[in-house]
Amino acid sequence: MPFLRRVSVFLAALLLGAQVHAADGLQLQEQQIKAGLLYNFLKYTNFPAPNFTNPGTITVCVFGDDPFSGNLQPIAGRTVNQREIALRTIHDIDAIANCQLLFVNKDEKSRWPQLHAALAGKNVLTVSDFEFFAAQGGMIEFGHVDNHIRVNLNMDALTAAGLRVEDRLLRLVTVVHGGSHE
Amino acid sequence: MNSSGISIRTILLLTISALTFLIVIFAAQGLYVEWERLDKITTLKNAARLSDMLFDANEKLTVERDIALTILDATDTESIERLKPHLLESRARADAAMSGVLHSLTQYDFSELPQLQGKIIAHLPEIQALRRQIDNAISSPHRQKNPLLAKRWYLAVTDLSREAEDLWLEFVSHFSNVDAIVTQHLRYKHFLRIITDSAAHERAIIGRLIAENADPTPNEFADLLQGQGIMQLSWDTSYLLAKQSGLYPSIESYYRDAKSHYATLYDMVHGIFYLPGGKHATAYPIGADTWLELSTEAAESLDDLKTVSLHETREYVEEIAAESQRAIAVHLLLLLFALTLCTYSFWLITHRVINPINRIIAALLDTMQQKSVSFEPLAGNQLEEIKKLAQVLDAFRKNLEMVRGASAIIAHNESRLRAVVDHTLDGLITINELGTIESFNPACVRIFGYQADEAIGQNVKMLMPNPYHGEHDGYLSRYVATGSPHIIGTAGREVRGRRKDGTTFPMDLSVSAFELEDGRHFSGIIRDITDRKEAEREILESQGRYRALSEASAQIIWTWKAGVLDKNSPLAQWWENTTGQPSEKITTFGWLEVAHPDDRDRLQKIWEDAIENKNNFETEYRLRKRDGNYMHVALRAVALLEADGSLREFVGSLDDITERKEAERKTALLAAIVEFSDDAIISKSLDGTILSWNSGAEHLFGYNAAETVGQHISLIIPPERMGEEREIIAQIHAGKSVAHFDTVRRTKDGRLIDISLSVSPILDADGKVIGASKTARDITERKRIDIELLRYMRELERSNQELDDFAYIASHDLKEPLRGLFNHATFLLEDYAAKLDEDGVRRLNRLAHLSQRMEHLVNDLLYFSRLGRTELAIQETDLNLIISDIEQMMESTLKEKNAHIRVPQKLPAIVCDRPRITEVFRNLITNAVKYNNKTERIVEVGYLENLETLQGTENSVFYIRDNGVGIAPEFYQEIFRIFRRLQRTTESKEEGTGVGLTFVKKIIERHKGRIWLESEPGQGTVFYFTLGRRET
Questions:
Q1: 3-state class (DSSP) for residue B335
Q2: How many CB atoms lie within 10 A of CB B935?
């Protein structure tokens, strides 16, 4: 990461951090961690190649507003599995194209079913942090357990979307709905 | 040629050797360098491998370290339980890696390694001990945090790592000069290792903080920041190093992945741990295990990078090792190639340059030695330059051969010309404008008599007789001035030349002029034509003779030239006279008209052929005479050709052969007579070779003609009779025939037969004896008759003898009365002459005379009979004595008659009856004197060893020649008859009884001789006789 950016983030964080109370701090930390975990998901998920219009790029789409307060931004341009990460924010369902990973803003959970339907047959990894996301067909759901971030993985939905994950990822997640319950 | 100098080959050899040597040196040097490098790279490779293993081990160790630390710091059982497997796993991995390293260390043979090994091994016991302690600590139920243990553990592992790393760096630094790239690789990896280390440190700290749910202390905070700083620096430095060493492109994606991962990891926790005031009062949002997991995953990304980098480095090293090996191989190949090239160059130049050159040199030598050698084969399949050289040399050779050939031809021509000039029979002389003789060939020497050195340099006028002598200079200068040749003379001017001895001779002179670079010269061809002149004169004479001969010849000599006839020629004249045909007919084919019709066609063919092919020919034909009768003629012709081979004329003869034809016919008739005669008629040559053998001979002797003709007559003569043959031959030689003598011959079947043989000489036209003709008749019958005859003959002989005796007795008895008569007649005359008348006296005289004559006759008769009866008293007789006796005896008569006896040469001594032979000579001489009417009567008595007679050659012939009255041929036989006389002698007073020659003949015959005579009436006579007995 460019040093200047970091500094600016650092300073912003400093400025902002002072105003944010602990809950926000936690939220921020959570956001940071979630954002970082998306990288891991990208790394350890096997996306079928034909879906890639641009094989050298892997696209992370955020449906809805940015829930990471810009903390996801840094991963744009980084590489994972020798592919460059591209970051997009989309608000329309029709605009879902060439997304490998789709993070759904919890605010959009109402639109999830529609989204879900639109994603049928596409090899898109869906991630969100609203409750029952996984039950509704979402693949990776961020949850909480004892104030720890918990990652739930819907293996069926994953498999249905034609995706596979490596065992390494399984160490970080709890498989739900079909996978072995850790 | 001797190679005393340095050859190309030597220089080539030296050069190539030097080159080879240099190449070898350089290659060897390069090889050595490369080999060393390869060696070092190999070492480096091994070192790199070792380095990686060491890093790996170090890393694993670090991981184990951090996990252990985390466990030690963990308070809740769940975390501990979760971490235990990780710890065990990491421990196992660390051990495996470490043992791998230690194992590898034994494989390599570096001097520093034992030290390295020692250092590592030294730490191990402590590590093991601490491990056990950790195990104890975490498995103990009453667990208490043992920060000391953690610290000790941390230090131990870190120390080990650091030491190993330092030692390794030192070790690697040796190789920095081997390959800078590799060094950079290693340095780059070093920074990765630093990242690993720092990450691990971070992992440990944060892990512990999460596990303790504690805030970082300022130290820890500082550590974390430091760590991040170091990590960041390391990322950048390693990036630079990778870029610098060219490693980056290969590892870019991995690098970015690793860096991205670490960045993301940092992002996940920086807000928590890296921001002051970022601490969280309550639990961290992730658990320690999650953190470890995340950190480990990030470490794995770095691991991937490291693996790739390792691989790249290895590949690179392999590459440079391979490169070095390739370089070595290339050097070797180059070396080999260079050596091969050198060898090949040497061979090539030797084979393609030096050898061809040597071959060319050899060929040149051969060419110089006049051997004909083509350079063409040397040009084939050679280098361009050699080819050209060979081709050019070949052209030179051809040129040279041409020149040589031309020189040879010139030399040959020159020698030929010289030979011609020297050997020509014509004199060849050249002079210059002043008339000085420049050349004088051998023919000139012969013609003029001057030697060449006497003539050359002199003026040519010395070869001319005086009239021309002074004029020649004038001729020459006029010719030179005017160029007009006729002044000197053109070809064929006849002049006279003068020899050295002063004599002149006619010569043919042809003169021509020619220019040389030194001026004008003249050449003359001189021929001494004395002979030719002579020949010309002879030809004229000969022509005259020929003409005369033609006219005198009984043959018609004719010349025939087509269309040309001399009407006055003998041929023309004769033709018209004989045939009545106009002589023009001869010129063409008209003469055939007077040939016999049967002969005409044949003649025409012959004549046409002769004219066309210019052949000579001979033929016979019948020519019609003017009176219509035919005469046989023999026609001969010889074609005379011009110089160009064309027909000039025919010359020939025409003979009247009518007689010959008749003779031939007669001969044929005679031959037939001979052939069919019953008698055996055999002809033989003088040497006894049988020439002909008729059927009678075949019948008589049993041989046929083929068996006998060509054989010797002795074929049929029994050996005991060979003597006869010789005698016969002798007779035949003398031209005498041998008539009917009986002999014995032998037939084919060996039988002896009695034959009567007549042999006559065969005379040629000149009367020369050329052979004998023998007629043989079987006389067996006759023999019988002969025996009868013999009986009769004996009877006859007896009666003859009786007669002889009677004659003797009678004559003897007669003598007495005769004497008595004579005496009485004489007495009567003496006594009674006076009483008688003239007539009576005359009668008495006559009576006396007659009785005397009668007595003489009786005496002669007696003598004659005695001659036939008495033995010859053979004794050696000197004839010269006899002649001189006779001379003495006849002295008075000789004187009276003016006769001389000449004995030209001494007569031989012979064996004979002396008195009788004396009588012979006396008789003959007396006759010679008597029958002579010349003033001087010459009698020549002589002896001829050989005398040619009509009968052949007679040997030992005596002769008495006189110049008397001669005897006519018709009386040659008569004169030998008893009591015959040809004429009375000139002095009729003397009378002979006419028995002289008879006696002579008888005596001679008793001596087995022969007497004959030759006489020329009025000139003289020669009596010849042989005595048949050999002289002593």
A1: helix
A2: 7
pLDDT at B1031: 47
Q: Tell me the residue type at B1022.
A: V
Structure tokens at A112: 């999830």
The 3-state DSSP class for residue B878 equals strand
The region that residue B974 occupies, defined by phi over 0 for left and psi between -120 and 50 for alpha, beta otherwise, is alpha
Amino acid identity for residue B658 in this structure: T
- Per DSSP, the three-state class of B853 is helix
- Tell me how far CA of residue B855 lies from CA of A11, B806, B822, B862, B984, in angstroms: 230, 16, 9, 10, 20
- Minimal Cα distance from A171: which residue of B? B293
Cβ–Cβ under 8 Å, residues B456 and B431 = no
Return the pLDDT at A19: 46
Burial of residue B900 (CB within 10 Å: 0-12, 13-18, 19+) is: middle
pLDDT-derived band of residue B456, with 50, 70 and 90 as boundaries? Answer: very high
Q: Which residues contact B590 (CB under 8 A, 6 or more apart)?
A: B581, B584
Q: Which residues of A fall below an 8 Å CB-CB distance to B?
A: 1, 3, 10, 13-14, 17, 22, 25-26, 28-30, 32-33, 35-37, 39-40, 43, 71, 74-75, 78-82, 85, 146-149, 168, 171-172
Tokens (6 digits) for B925: 């001489």
Q: Is B639 helix (H, G, I), strand (E, B) or coil?
A: strand
Residue B799, chain A, CB below 8 Å: the answer is no
Separation between Cα atoms, residue B841 and residue B835, nearest integer Å: 9
Q: For residue B304, which of B270, B261, B271 has the smallest C-alpha distance?
A: B261
Block residue for tokens 């390794």: B168
Distance, CA of B788 to CA of B794 (rounded, Å): 10
Interacting residues of B274 by C-beta distance below 8 A, sequence separation 6+? B224, B225, B228, B266
Give the side-chain half-sphere CA count within 13 A for A139.
29
The encoded tokens of residue B815 equal 């003598």
All residues of chain A having their beta carbon less than 8 Å from the beta carbon of residue B264 are: 36, 39-40, 74-75, 78
User: Which residue does chain A place closest to B292, by CA atoms?
Assistant: A172
Amino acid letter for position B892: S
Q: What would the two tokens of residue B474 be?
A: 């004038």
Q: Which residue bears the tokens 């039988």?
A: B751
SS3 B245: coil
Q: What is the pLDDT of residues B492-515, one digit of tens each?
A: 455 788 899 988 888 877 778 888
Q: Which of B113-127, B573-587, B802-816, B900-914 is modeled with the greatest confidence?
A: B900-914
**Is B375 in a helix, a strand, or coil?**
coil
| 3-state SS class at B686 | coil
Tell me, what's the ipTM?
0.83
**Exposed, middle or buried: residue B477 (CB in 10 Å: 0-12, 13-18, 19+)?**
middle
Length reported for chain B: 1032
SS3 state at B136:
helix
Contact assignment for A43 to B265 by CB distance below 8 Å: no
Residues of A in Cβ contact (< 8 Å) with B257:
79-82
Helices (H), B349-469: 355-368, 376-379, 384-423, 442-448, 452-455, 466-469
CA–CA dist B572, B565 (Å, integer): 8
The per-residue b/e assignment along B763-775, b for 16 or more CB within 10 angstroms, e otherwise, is: eeeeeebbbbbbb
CB atoms within 10 A of CB B479: 20
Query: What's the gap between Cα A76 and its chain centre?
Result: 13
| Residue A3 with chain B: CB contacts under 8 Å | 232
Lookup: tokens for B266 = 């940092």
Q: Are A87 and A70 in contact (CB under 8 A)?
A: no
Q: What are phi and psi of B748, to 5 degrees?
A: -60, -40
With tokens 């002396």, the residue in question is B914
C-alpha span between B17 and B267 (Å, rounded): 74
